[in-house]
UniProtKB/TrEMBL annotation:
CDD domains: MhqN-like. Residues 15-191 form the Nitroreductase domain. GO terms for molecular function: oxidoreductase activity. Keywords: Oxidoreductase. This is Nitroreductase. Signal peptide: none annotated. The keyword Oxidoreductase applies. It holds the Pfam family Nitroreductase.
């Protein structure tokens, strides 16, 4: 076994070139297949007990975008970008535990016995948690998959901007989203019409402490 690390230089380039873009070419269309490829990369993100609580609504219909616009505080990228992707989290994702472990068994990752035991552990453990804790888990996992989605898009030449500025209740009403699902964010996806603004970051020594914490 080699002792050398495998360094992916392109990743360093992707994370440094990704900026939040708010101006998009409204004439540019991203195919459904391209969006699926980006989402395929996104869902490789980690999640609590691999329950993958994320769900996505891909909004490409112009009329629906117009309905979404005021709900998203009239952020123009909602209609100009090729797609707006809503990320939502399933707070009852543990109900899919058996299915997930069946896929793992079919792929040869676990035996049927191990899969069944792991599924039972997840279902029993998560179903007994308070709703607030399940919401927190869904939001954390939703944030992980959202960041991966944005990096996957950038790696394919597209730009994005995450949006937390929208009215969740009105969004729920528009899409008839059950209470089981927690809204995470909206992400505009498309071809930039203007470059995103570069932003400064706090120096590392201001945000990192070693072996302890002082506020």
């Amino acid at each position: 076994m080699t002792t050398e690390l495998k360094v992916e230089a392109e990743f360093s380039k992707v994370i440094r070139e990704r900026h939040s873009v708010r101006k998009y070419d409204p004439s540019w269309k991203i195919s459904d297949e391209e969006i699926k490829a980006i989402l395929d990369d996104a869902i490789l993100a980690p999640s609590s007990s691999n329950l993958q609580p994320w769900r996505f609504i891909v909004i490409t219909d112009p009329a629906l975008k117009e309905q979404l616009l005021p709900i998203a505080n009239n952020q123009q990228q909602v209609v100009d970008a090729s797609a707006t992707i809503a990320v939502i989290g399933d707070i009852e994702a543990y109900r899919n535990a058996e299915k997930i472990w069946e896929y793992a068994e079919a792929a040869g990752y676990v035996t049927a016995e191990v899969g069944a035991a792991m599924a039972k552990r997840s279902r029993d453990g998560y179903s007994s948690m308070p709703v607030q804790k399940l919401k927190e888990i869904a939001l954390v996992d939703g944030g992980l998959v959202s960041m991966q989605l944005m990096l996957a898009a950038k790696a394919k030449g597209y730009d994005t901007v995450p949006m937390g500025g929208f009215h969740p209740d009105k969004f729920r009403e528009l899409f008839s989203i059950p209470e089981r699902y927690e809204t995470v964010m909206l992400i505009a996806l498309g071809k930039a019409a203007a470059e995103g603004r570069s932003t400064a970051r706090l120096p590392l020594e201001e945000v990192v402490q070693w072996n302890g914490f002082e506020g």
